[in-house]
Amino acid sequence: MNPFTTPDRLFISTRPQDMRAGIQRLAAAVTTDFGMDPTDGALYCFVSRDCLKMKLLRFETNGWCMYYVRLAEGGFRWRHPDGGASALQIERRQLIWLLDGIDFVQPGAPEPVAARVVL
Among 19, 33, 86, 111, which is most exposed with the fewest C-beta within 10 angstroms? Predict the structure, then answer.
C-alpha cells in the first residue's frame, strides 16, 4: 500500500504527538481530537513536538497502515499553531513538500489543477 496514491483526504494534526504512540492511540486521537472516523480511508499525519519525526496513519480495506518518517538531515518545516482547529486538511502536494523538508505553505505555488473532463 502506498499512502500517497489513493487517499482523497489528508489531515495533519496541529497538536504535537508523542511518537511512542501506536496505532490504537493515534486512532483514538483521530476520534477525540479531530472528531472523525479513523477508518474512513483518509490519511492522518502526526508530527512530533520537535518536528523531527512524523507518523502517518491510514485504514485500508482490511487493516491499519502506519508509517514512521524521520528525515536524514534537518526536520520538518512545520510549526504547531497555537489554538484553532486540532486538524488541518492539506493537499497531497503539501504532504510531499513537508516530507521533502520544504515548508508546506508555498506562496508562489500554482493552484492545483482539477480536470473534470477528458478531451
Answer: 111
